[in-house]
Amino acid sequence: MTDAADLRRRTAELLAAYPPATTDRLDFLRARFDAGLAWVHYPEGLGGLGAPRSLQAVVDADLEAEGAPDNDPRRIGIGLGMAAPTILAYGTQEQKRQYLRPLWTGEEVWCQLFSEPGAGSDLAALGTRAVREGGAWVVNGQKVWTSSAHVARWAILIARTDPDVPKHRGITYFICDMTDLGVEVRPLRQVTGEAEFNEVFITDVRIPDSRRLGEIGDGWKVAQTTLNNERVAIGGMRLPREGGMIGPVAKTWRERPELRTHDLHQRLLKLWVEAEAARLTAERLRQQLVAGQPGPEGAGMKLAFARLNQEISGLEVELRGEEGLLYDDWSMRRPELVDFVGRDAGYRYLRSKGNSIEGGTTEVLLNIVAERVLGLPSEPRTDKDVAWKDLAR
């Protein structure tokens, strides 16, 4: 079994063969993947060595010390945090070999085609249809709130393949080529002035059955793997102390004593402690992942992430007084990632409003925590045994 010493030896061999200072960035990342040092807990031949997940930190530390490039994980977060674990769990060997390497190196960006105008919180009510025609599926529908759709090469997509069964049972999971004819991406301008999200119109797009993940009708089950990993990726990201939203507020407090009041001090102390508790809880959750797959606990972390971001950004605006009302740039942009700490307090305040919607609404996540973590009785569901086609819409 691979241990820390073996990983350090393999890392040293990679660095010797591909010195970061003289090796093209993409060539280095490809070589790292092929050496099994991309995500060491993945199987051999797929960027890993079947090693314990906890040993990834050994590789990362040695590579960072030598100035090796990373794969810009924030830019490809949907691929790394959602698509990859789903492909690993449900993909064929051919699918794993085709998609995982360019996904990890960042050559191909992924997006997520799940939410719809009429199926956001109640995702299982989705109406995008996929109809089988020979060896392909013809897909028609509309998706919304799609991050990175404007730069994505591939998308993970769920669509309704059987309207005659209850909504959770008639869904199938696909991989969609975002460059296909019939895929139209339109920007959604937000309150921040940016169009970070998109709406995607899908018209007669043919998806080969070879791009189906899991069995026909098992799409909801497959999607749970994606959603559980998404919530961990959002709420359980690794941060240093005072990382994230609490950092700029604490910095302003230390550097601007003229802004301080007793009330603001008490609120800052409370939020600082809560942010640190959330950070340590996220670290514990990541350690639990070493032993298995993410579960509903990620929903609790995502809930805390959203609430804290909104409360901290509100405190920051109030702390800065008139300065907090200023906004640096309203120009229309289509960014590839969200930069909370690289913008001003006004941006953080406005952008954090979306945290309680994206990655699962607060209301839905509260239900998940209540039912799947605390074991409380489920809410009554009158549509549980009703065919999707017979549901009121």
Structure description:
- The chain is α+β, with helices and mostly antiparallel strands.
- Helix content is 40%, strand content 13%.
- A hairpin with an 8-residue loop joins strand 6 and strand 7.
- It is globular, with a radius of gyration of 22 Å.
- It starts with a helix and ends in a 20-residue tail after the last helix.
Please provide the count of β strands: 8
The largest sheet has its strands arranged as 1-4-5-8
Q: Give the structural class.
A: alpha+beta
Measured distance between first and last alpha carbons: 55 Å
> Main sheet?
4 strands, mixed
What portion of residues belong to β-strands?
5-15%
Task: Please give the radius of gyration in angstroms.
Answer: 22 Å
List the helices and strands in order.
HHHHHEEEEEEEEHHHHHH
Number of H/I helices: 11
Poorly predicted sequence stretches spanning 5 or more consecutive residues: none
Helix proportion range: 40-55%
What best-fitting shape do the alpha-carbon axes yield? globular
Whole-number mean pLDDT = 91
Summary, kept brief:
This protein is of the alpha+beta class. The chain is about 40% helix and about 15% strand.
Layout of strands and helices, then pairs:
Blueprint (H helix, E strand, L loop, with lengths): L3 H14 L7 H10 L21 H10 L11 H14 L2 H13 L4 E4 L15 E5 L2 E8 L10 E7 L10 E7 L5 E6 L8 E12 L3 E2 L5 H17 L10 H10 L6 H28 L7 H24 L24 H7 L10 H12 L20
Helix pairs in contact: 1-3, 2-5, 4-5, 4-6, 6-9, 7-9, 8-9, 9-10, 9-11
Describe the structure using short key phrases.
alpha+beta; 393 residues; 8 strands; 4-stranded antiparallel sheet; single chain
